[in-house]
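Structure (tokenized):
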């Protein structure tokens, strides 16, 4: 089974969003749009540029909505996949309801209220909470996901990645993959969820402002 994101061509993107070639590449130079999202593919007319459709459409909408209030440099800081130097105490995390109390009770019950979490650990809790809230994952699978994030996310070192959650015959697995990527599974594998970790980072930054 093929697990590939839907793509949109550069021409389709410019037409759909009413933006110019110059705007698009200015945003790229300012690192508002990751280099990895510009995908060169051969077509019958020659080489064309494509983008992961869901990611680029969401990103363009976000840029358009925020560009009147923030400079491009400020926008770049908000949209960067790099983790900010940010920390939060457990008690403040609970008070602000960044993640549900259920997640903290299950996965952080041994931590005192005064323990301080880095942004990276806040992200791990946030991703687990996101899938639990969607009703797509059990608590036991949440433990498995948390371990996967802790073990493998740091290896990407700020590069965009996706979380893939699959299940076959009741056995679940998680993987973190570079973006963009296409991958294939044997028959019988069900894709439960595919999350853009970069989007999760942006969402979490927004909650922490």
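Design, position by position:
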């Amino acid at each position: 089974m093929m697990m590939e994101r839907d793509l949109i061509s550069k021409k389709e993107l410019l037409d759909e969003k009413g933006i110019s070639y110059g705007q698009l590449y200015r945003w790229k130079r300012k690192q508002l749009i990751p280099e990895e999202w510009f995908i060169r593919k051969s077509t019958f007319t020659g080489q064309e540029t494509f983008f992961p459709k869901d990611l680029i459409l969401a990103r363009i909408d976000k840029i358009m909505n925020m560009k009147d209030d923030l400079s491009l440099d400020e926008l770049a800081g908000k949209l960067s996949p790099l983790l900010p130097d940010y920390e939060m105490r457990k008690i403040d995390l609970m008070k602000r309801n960044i993640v549900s109390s259920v997640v903290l009770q299950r996965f952080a019950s041994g931590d005192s209220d005064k323990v301080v979490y880095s942004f990276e650990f806040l992200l791990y809790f946030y991703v687990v909470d996101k899938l639990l809230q969607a009703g797509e994952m059990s608590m036991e699978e949440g433990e498995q996901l948390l371990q996967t994030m802790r073990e493998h996310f740091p290896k990407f070192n700020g590069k965009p990645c996706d979380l893939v959650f699959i299940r076959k015959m009741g056995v679940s697995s998680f993987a973190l993959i570079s973006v963009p990527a296409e991958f294939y599974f044997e028959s019988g594998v069900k894709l439960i969820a595919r999350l853009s970790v970069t989007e999760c980072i942006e969402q979490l930054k927004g909650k922490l402002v």
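Reviewer-requested clarification: The chain has a mean pLDDT of 87. The longest helix spans residues 119-133.
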